[in-house]
Amino acid sequence: MSWWLLLVPVVLGTVVQLWLTAKQTTAWAQELRRIRPLGATAVGSGGRRYRGGKAFVALAVADKRVTGAFSLRGFTTFARPAPLPALVGVRLAVVAGDRPLEGLTNSERIAAREAAGMLRTALADGPGATSPAGPPVSAGTT
Fold this sequence. Notes:
Layout: H1 2-35, E1 40-48, E2 53-62, E3 65-74, E4 82-83, H2 92-96, H3 106-124
Antiparallel strand pairs: 1-2, 2-3, 3-4
């Protein structure tokens, strides 16, 4: 009977974690669906999980300018997507470059640079490489 005292909290904790992960994934997907009509999209990741937190940044680009951006950063499944207004209107080449950008953490800057690099490559490949209404150019995963 004593093994039940250990098993029940472990199972309950796993179920709660799965539920929180599903909520976070749903919030991310809704935000990504919101910016996809704004242009070609890409997702980059940056930072370290235990040193400052991991960040994911999604960018939408049209006419070589960022038209929408948001990030997900944090240590837990409680993290939710947050808009990045500092990137909206910035040229794609600037985001892909090394210059620091005001309003972004270091891990968000690295993730934004990665997403911008993917978009620059995809857009340089010519029309048809990506489309504003099509699937994202790439998705960073970890």
